[in-house]
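Dissemination and training. As part of the outreach component of the grant, students in the summer workshop were shown how a complex can be specified as a set of sequence lines and then modelled as a single object. The example used during the hands-on session is reproduced here so that future cohorts can follow it. Participants entered these lines:
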Amino acid sequence: MPDWMVHVAVAWSLCRILRLHYGEFNPANTVLVMVGSIFPDAIKVSIIGELLGFDLWNYIYVFHLPVGSFLLAGITSLLFQEKKKAFLFLLLGIVTHYLMDLLLIQVGYGMSLFYPLNWMGFTLNLVPNDDYYITIVALVVALVIYLVTNWIESRNIQK
Amino acid sequence: MKLETPSKRILTGLILVVVLAGLCIHYTTEYQEHLKYPSYEVILADYPEGEVVNVDGTVLGRDNGMLVIQENQQGQLVTMKVESNTPVELKDQVSVVGVLGANNTIINVERVEVNENWKYLFLLLRSLLVLIFLGYLFQRYWSFDWEAFHFRRR
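and obtained this result:
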């Protein structure tokens, strides 16, 4: 996985750009997209299992497939006042997660994005799992987006 | 269906949890059939010697020039020896594609991918920091209404 810094930075950057045109991407909903962007990595609970001597990875691997992540988002959105909205913002975060994970080098197969309909694995095999250059790039891009969108917003206010 | 009452939401949540659990069971029982190369489950059950397999594991060291890796496969520790000169450190994670030889060896290695241990720990640390930051941000913009049993915007 790219680390959560990458996932969250990408989700935030996307929301920051969309906020220029759509008021719905306010800070509260942006936080939901950011939370959604790490939802598929709920599978990392397996790391704790591993420390305790249990191999849970394959049992909960569905969490790291779109269908499982969408179900998790559905379950979580039940805990929000505006459930549909919460679900959609979490969903957007989840989609950004898979787009980033597609970049990863996968020796075996890749992610079965269309499971359970199709098991075909997808990967672009571009970035190693433990790469940190992608983190630096994501943070720099987020900073640039912050500065540019701030400048655009202040210019719009002056008009 | 309107999901305003807690009981309806609990029922819907339970249905979604059951569907998710069903998918988890389906995936666990079926995924081996759909892997590009067989892995530990098949190796332990049938030992398909001479076939190309894909195994992962933690580096334990070298033995007679062969890379020794170990993996916890459903509670069973499996040790493999890999014919590879790829530079690795202790505790690095490797994923190997190669031909399964006799006595848990991987020969004619086609591909080795190494994830260095320190980079992995650094990745976990970065992710932990983000989790804490995200928790802070979430509680800043959302609060839980115990009476209505849902989050609402602050």
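Chain B has three helices and seven strands. Students were then asked to discuss how this feature might be tested experimentally.
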